Amino acid sequence: MAQKMTDEEWRAFVSEGTRTGKLSTVRADGSPHVAPIWFLLDGDDLVFNTGKDTVKGRNLVRDGRIALCVDDDRPPFDFAVLQGRARISEDPGELRHWAARIAARYMGEERAEEFGARNGVPGELLVRVPVDKVLAQRSVAD
Predict the structure, then answer these.
(1) What does the pLDDT look like over 35-58, one tens digit per residue?
(2) Domain 3-95+125-138 CATH (choose: 3.40.50.1010, 2.60.40.2310, 1.10.730.10, 2.30.110.10)
(3) pLDDT lower than 50: segments of the chain
(4) Which residues partner with 130 through β-bridges?
């Protein structure tokens, strides 16, 4: 039987290894758009970057509401869905710093600066989402 994750459990779960998130944003017509992202937790904030001219970037600038699903697709199946409203920054120093930290998680420390330089440039957005709602379950198939 599924069990609700504690605050500590869902934070550890979404931060484990190189798990990606499936980010849902709101299109101009109100329909959802979903895309995979690399991300980090920073305290109570979800942090990621994206191109300003991507579908998700345009959606976030217009309507900051998001939901992020992180899951383990192996039995007994666990998942967490985080919700909040994005705050956007284009500050070059902040953007490069976080792009490198995110890259360190997914590509390793040895490539962090390379990806920070690539993704921390004009035309990219730093997205910070204070998480205000979490639905997290473990052992869904038990």
Answers:
(1) 999 999 999 999 999 999 999 999
(2) 2.30.110.10
(3) none
(4) 45
